[in-house]
Input
Amino acid sequence: MHLLSKETNINFVGIRKFALAFSAILLIISVYSIVTNSLNFGIDFTGGTMIEVGYPQPVDLGEIRTTLEQGGYEDAMVQNFGSLTEVLIRLPVIETENMAEISNQVVALLQSEQTEAIEVRRVEFVGPQVGEELAEDGGLAMVYALIGILIYVALRFEYRFAIASVLALVHDVVITVGFFSLFRLDFDLTVLAAILAVIGYSLNDTIVVFDRIRESFLKMRKAEPLEVINTSINATLGRTIMTSMTTLLVVLSLFIFGGEVIHAFATALMIGILVGTYSSIYVAGTAVLLMGVTKTDLMPPEKDDGEEVNPDGSQV
Amino acid sequence: MNRYPLWKNLLVVAVIVIAIIYAMPNLFGDDPAVQVSASRQNTVDLQLANEIESTLKQAEIPYKGVVLEENRLLIRFSEANDQLKARELIQQSLSADDYIVALNLAPNTPPLLRSLGAKPMNLGLDLRGGVHFLMEVDMDTVLKQTLESYGSDIRILLRDKTIRYTQVNVNGDVLTFGFREEADRDAAIREINREHNEINAVIDENADRPTVAIRLNEATVRETQSLALQQNITTLRNRINELGVAEPTVQQQGQERIVVQLPGVQDTAQAKKILGATATLEFRLVDFENDVQDAINGRVPANSELFYHRDGRPYLLHKRVMLTGEHVINAASTIDGQTGSPAVSVTLDGKGARIFSNITRDNIGNPMSVVFIESKIETQIINGEEVSVRRQLPEIISVATIRDQLGKKFQITGLDGTTEARDLALLLRAGALAAPIDIVEERTVGPSLGQENIDQGFASVMIGFALVLVFMIIWYRVFGAVANLALAANLVLIVALLSMLQATLTMPGIAGIVLTVGMAVDANVLIFERIREELRMGNSPRASIDAGYAKAFSTIADANITTLIAAIVLFGFGTGTIKGFAVTLTLGILTSMFTAIVGTRMVINLIYGRQQRPKLSI
Output
């Protein structure tokens, strides 16, 4: 079965103004939301305590809230997690001598209201200092990954390709983070990992397109850069869509069957893959074009210009 | 052109076969088991194994087998219920101070595979349940304590030199001495710097009166911190032994933190109490005038107490404590300059040195002992209620004869070897100034959630995998089927590598595998799309296959190397859970390059290589 029965010839670069406008709108919404709304940081970054308890029967969240309030935990956030019998309680950092003991005290308090034993499914406590460090390390990881990629692409291709690919990556990251901000989704350590994976994935996509652009520049000697880039995007389109589909399939499987704990992670990957696929088709190529790459930039210096190369790449 | 040489085919087959062998242990699951290991100088041996076996037989608890491994005994059961009953029974029959009895899981690997060294993957705490603590040593307090003990030293020094000071203060990382006269201040600086090269004494310019500011120099700060960390790791290890955890991890992380992982532990409140307990030291004189044997039989003299050495020997010690651990500044293992044998050098603070010197002067030739006292917190049932009781566990760690009047620095010699010297030094430090330690991070996963995570992780890998298989067959037909073979081989390779490296599989690790499954087909998609393209240009099928692989290669390499960069950065910056994701992603990228390029080419060659003008099903 062929997704694209013939060679496609869609003028992707021709509609670059629309694509740019679309990206710009998404970016503006994302940045605006991140600035005004900030992110719903999980306790990994803010510090605090998170407790997941399982009750034998479905419980009333209101009662749990009242119990916690009476016990002195006014700032507790209580919600169902996955099912009606499972409850997730989140507490901000409470400055006391023994911050690590809070989880045990809360569980004891909840147990005192119940006749049947409740099950502690998960406890996470992150001290404020550790949270700060995790956030800092996460930010640094993102920056170092981008720098590493910038250097590699600059060495393998050309500096303008490197800048274009990093632009596309920043585009993807900002929109994915913006999505989390806009919809107030939990942003924890696993989401950060997912975003780094998205960087890897989206770059993968972009590199494949760039590789083809480089190849086409050498083959299509008389063509304009716009035409070359268009042809390259079209030539790799089948692969771009196919790979995105398979990756989306497995991420979807992770989202549906992987359980509540992995939800945010899978969501970030899904958004990232969609945006990454879009950006490698519409953004990366356009960025290369706008930076004015021509075929002379990609000519291997030792190759003699006198050599005859046919449009199909065969040499005579 | 479309044939691999024999060696290449054999290589691929060999790699896959080895991978299957080493991935296999993961299929057999685990038996519930009870693990018995010895604490301290005890050993587990065949005799103990026989004793336990006869105990179990008497109680009619069915067991599958008893395995003696290095330093531990594993008793396997087929039912978790039998395991629990057996643990209770074994715990009662063995002395709690000599043996650690813990619940564990014993991998059910067949002997043939085990003889090849094949083991299943380790499961992370999020999959098997347990507690992860990150503990931080309060270095500010450690440094302050160190400064304070220098403070008491310097007071004595100044008194000896008749330099009069007015006040002493510790403020943050500075120790200050105030003086009436500038001349006194300058004399003090001279004397302090001559006596101690670990600290720096300078004029405090900010003070309105003549003042000396004393700071620890950088090397001393570093050394103090690293000793405090080592000391805490040692005490934590000792205490965790009491928790009865099968495979605990205690590891240094960075300059001031310690990671503690306790698989299978559920009662985190109890764990926190035990980890937070403290140890102390006491120096006591040995009562050699009365008979130890009498004391063992119950006739303990009024002024003495009966104690046991770590090696089991009983001693009678005087009730009066010469000195406690708070006066010990440092203890380090060294080599005795005169005899060349291993020794421990102990440094006392000023006050301690004075007391010690007075007592040792009157007791030259008599034996002295060091008692290490660990506070254990135990849960007892009193009147039907669970009560936490603090129990003190004293233990003699050294008995030595006083050869001379001892002062600030002295040596304990006559030790059996460097290991004993090192252990003794560690225990002395552990019982000395206790460095305060706090839990700064906790991650606990209950057993049912762990099992759920395993089930859901497994389901998502399998369903994702199946979806991709179907998708590829529909799209690329025979070539898709070949890519599917490669994908399956890739999955086996990842599991085999994780098992061989004995890496720990976590939930994010599973996510990494799932993502790899999705991305691994990318290389094949690239190759197949290229082949189609070549065919469209009217090239012969065999030339198309060749060109497809050749042209896609550099693209695949570029794309994978950039993803690898991201994965390696993740590994470098991530903490435990993120690292798991980075490891599987990295392994997945590497193995997929092999299976998707070399592996599929081999199969394609086998299918189409011999035909002159094959019709490609792509």
Observations:
- The CA atoms of residues 23 and 180 of chain A lie 17 Å apart.
- Chain A has two domains: 16-41+130-298, 48-126.
- The domain at 16-41+130-298 of chain A is CATH 1.20.1640.10 (Multidrug efflux transporter AcrB transmembrane fold).
